[in-house]
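Support request, please re-run this one:
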Amino acid sequence: MLRKQILEEIQSKEKKLLELRKILQSDTAASYKEATQTSEMIEVLELNLMDLKNMLIQDKQYIKMIISKDNNNNDHVFYIVEKDGDPSLMRFSTASPFGLKLSKLNKGDKFQYQDQELTIISIDEK
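Re-run finished. Output below.
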């Protein structure tokens, strides 16, 4: 997602959350079932909002973003960061062996990741 799209989505979800919170106040007085459903909708929206904000943070804090494809044509996005790498978020520090290896690769290069051969199709450097 582009930064502009993420920001628009955040605005939309924040507006919806505000509306749902107002509805929840009136639902609580009306019925437990309606209040519970509204509470669940608020929870889901808050989680979505948190994910979008994390995407913005990731987008701003990488040195390189490497997009690669596997043999099944699936995309894999890797972020090279200066510090605070987190492999679960596909963020690899330049201090780590894998992050250092990734940072030296070029478009078209192949590399191994989790028993798959990937080919770099794009590199975005900040």
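The CA atoms of residues 24 and 37 lie 9 Å apart. The radius of gyration is 20 Å.
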